[in-house]
């Protein structure tokens, strides 16, 4: 039987997740029950249900006697995360291309179009929640046809954690020499052309370049 607080918990989970991904809750920040209750107008019981879900998804950590924190970040962790993400996500993409049908192709192109039309930065200069949602959906759709659902879930969890790094120390993945929109276009085009090798190579370069620029931004 689902928890009575399920619907409420789902809403709070979605808000907390969005605040972590957009940087409103900073990496390593303590998720104190009192502050969270006030911020989200929620009970302790709901928080006790929601926070372990964030831990399972890799967006928070639980420390004995210390409670919960937003997942901390470091260059070493980012490098390990990137290596693992490339390994998992490219395999899921290769399988998705092999099994995708015409409906999947249309979904890839639709999600790509939506992402291209969504502003990446909000009025406060932060990564926009709408863009994060469109970006997550685009990458999720690319993997949607992969028949191994566990592989897809792992890939999506790793990608969620990688989004936290966009806001780390104002580290930025922008570069005058980089065209992120074109990168997304090349991945999508290769996928619907059923050129798995090219799609995988484009995705790998896309992920690794983001990491390179994030580290350069933080070190600068």
UniProtKB/TrEMBL annotation:
GO molecular function: DNA binding; DNA-binding transcription factor activity
InterPro entries: GntR_C, TF_FadR/GntR_C, Tscrpt_reg_HTH_GntR, WH-like_DNA-bd_sf, WH_DNA-bd_sf
Domain HTH gntR-type residues, every copy: 6-73
Pfam families: FCD, GntR
Keywords from the UniProt entry: DNA-binding, Transcription, Transcription regulation
Domain of life (superkingdom): Bacteria
Protein name: FCD domain-containing protein
Species of origin: Rhodococcus xishaensis
Phylogenetic lineage: Bacteria, Bacillati, Actinomycetota, Actinomycetes, Mycobacteriales
């Amino acid at each position: 039987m689902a928890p009575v607080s399920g619907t409420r918990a789902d809403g709070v989970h979605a808000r907390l997740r969005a605040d972590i991904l957009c940087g409103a809750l900073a990496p390593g920040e303590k998720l104190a029950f009192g502050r969270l209750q006030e911020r989200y107008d929620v009970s302790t019981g709901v928080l006790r249900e929601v926070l372990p879900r964030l831990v399972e998804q890799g967006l928070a950590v639980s420390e004995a006697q210390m409670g919960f924190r937003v997942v901390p970040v470091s260059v070493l962790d980012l490098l390990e995360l990137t290596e693992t993400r490339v390994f998992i996500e490219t395999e899921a993409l290769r399988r998705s291309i092999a099994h995708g049908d015409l409906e999947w192709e249309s979904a890839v192109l639709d999600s790509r179009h939506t992402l291209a039309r969504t502003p990446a930065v909000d009025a406060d200069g932060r990564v926009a929640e709408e863009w994060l949602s469109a970006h997550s959906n685009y990458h999720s759709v690319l993997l949607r046809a992969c028949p191994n659902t566990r592989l897809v879930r792992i890939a999506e969890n790793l990608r969620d954690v990688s989004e936290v790094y966009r806001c780390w120390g104002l580290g930025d993945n922008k570069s005058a020499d980089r065209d992120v929109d074109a990168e997304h276009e090349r991945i999508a085009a290769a996928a619907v052309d059923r050129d798995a090798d090219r799609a995988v190579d484009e995705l790998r370069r896309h992920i690794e370049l983001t990491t390179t620029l994030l580290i350069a931004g933080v070190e600068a």
